[in-house]
Protein: Protein-export membrane protein SecF
Amino acid sequence: MSMNGWPIIKLLPHKTNFHFVKYAKGFAVLSAILTVAAIIGCFYPGLNLGIDFRGGASMEVAKPAGQVLELDKLRGAVSGLDLGDVQVQGIARRDTNLDDGSTAIVRFQVPENEDQTAVVQKVEGAISQAVGEVGYSGVSVVGSKVSGELLTNGVLALVVAVVLMFLYIAFRFPWQFGIGAVAGLLHDVALTFGLIVALRMEFSLNLVAALLTVIGYSMNDTVVVFDRLRENLRKYKVMPLREVIDLSINETLSRTIITGLTTVIVLIVLAVFGGEALRGFSITLAFGVVIGTFSSIYVGAPIILLWGVDRSGGGKADATPVKLGMASRP
Structure:
């Protein structure tokens, strides 16, 4: 069956005529405020670094199905061992994916001068003594040196990804397009970090993977809009630039909605049924898809209107309605 036969596709109009540029200034102010707030949030209160980047250990503690695990006793038992910051959180069972109060994840720090295996065994003994017979699974231990290296490599991966995307745009499009693409990309990364801070999600390697995926998705969506814009600039040489931008976004709107909606639906299902390990990844990526679509429309393209386009081939930017050409590129 072709896509045109799907009921949801029939609900989308074949042609739209929304005036996106008309509201660009208001959304630009909103985006600037949210971006600044997100950047500030990364330093205060700061990211909730997980075991991967802070060092320490985590384990799942579970009683038999139907028996309630007393989180206060669990927390008190581990806190009494003087292992620094201790976090206890109830989660759904692995076998049923239901949160019946019988399972929790425990996170604690491992002192540098103590044997990791011995510390984990001591924690398990204290927990068993406090709450009775329980099972342990998913034990993960990361040393402080390794966690520092992982944090450095994670940040480096994000920086390299942004730089490579910038080089790709610089090679494929005129510099005015590059400014819009990079601005949109930085906007998406900043706001996604802001979501992580606002929801106090544990910043782990999973979220680094989500951020890298957001960067790729955001750039892909931006390139689709920019490709159509470049084609229309050559096709409608006397049309005002703001109208060409509106036309290009409207022509790619149905594709953007279909792609974004199907991706978000899958990620919502993954967040609900994928368990604790994938919930943060799914939420972060779903938000990144939505905000990436927004930035392609209200951050990347309007910046081109601000700078104008090269109409003479000599590097001079001009947004004059009458001579709105663009130097042809090979």
About this structure: The chain is about 60% helix and 10% strand. The radius of gyration is 25 Å.
